[in-house]
Amino acid sequence: MSKSPASIGEKTLKSLQNWRELRLDVARVEHEQARTLTDARQQAVDTQQQKIDESNATMRAQLTENTVISVDALTRIRHFTLLTLDDLRQAQDSLQQARTEQNAAHAELVKKAADKRAVERLREKRKALSERDRSQREQKQMDDQAAVRYARELKEMQDSGNESSEG
């Protein structure tokens, strides 16, 4: 017994839908990974900024105490601040890259979700068409049966009419 084309088409659509769901799940995971990476890089930027703020606060505090500050101490604080500023720039660049990757992952997630919805709509449409075709076949079968029954009853009436006129 061979399978109907509709059955094969439905299985193909089901396979396609399963594949799209898998791709959507992968896109969700990738988006979440990108979001987590962005959060971590934002934390790194915040940490570097906090170090700079603390260094500046330390330098201001030493300058306002009216005490003698060695040139060496000021040089070390300035050197630390410059290194931290460089780390901050690198962290900001890394954060920007992570945001770009997160945006790309989000766009891919949206695309995959739209692809999945398209397959779902196609399956629903095919199911509705199949249901309509089945309903039309059933109606045709009932119409054919009614026509046969009507013809049989008409013939029986004619046969009984012929018998009564012969008698």
Count of domains? 1
Assign a percent range to the helix content: over 70%
Helices and strands, in order, run as HH
Ranges where pLDDT stays below 50 over 5 or more residues in a row are: none
Q: What class, by secondary structure content?
A: mainly alpha
Determine the mean pLDDT: 88
- In terms of DSSP E residues, the strand content is under 5%
Second CATH tier, the architecture: Orthogonal Bundle
The number of helical runs is 2
Using only CA atoms, what is the Rg? 39 Å
Q: Cα distance, first to last residue? A: 55 Å
**CATH class bucket:** Mainly Alpha
User: Which descriptor suits the 3D outline?
Assistant: rod-shaped
* Largest sheet: number of strands, sense, barrel closure: none
CATH topology category name: Helix Hairpins
* Topology, number of strands: 0
Describe this structure in words.
With 167 residues, this protein is mostly helical. It has a single domain, classed as Helix Hairpins (Orthogonal Bundle), CATH 1.10.287. Helices cover 93% and strands 0% of the residues. It contains two helices and no strands.
Q: Keyphrases for this structure?
A:
rod-shaped; 167 residues; Helix Hairpins; mainly alpha
What's a quick, concise take on this entry?
This protein has 167 residues and is mainly alpha-helical. The protein has helices spanning 5-64, 71-166. Helix 1 (5-64) runs antiparallel to helix 2 (71-166).
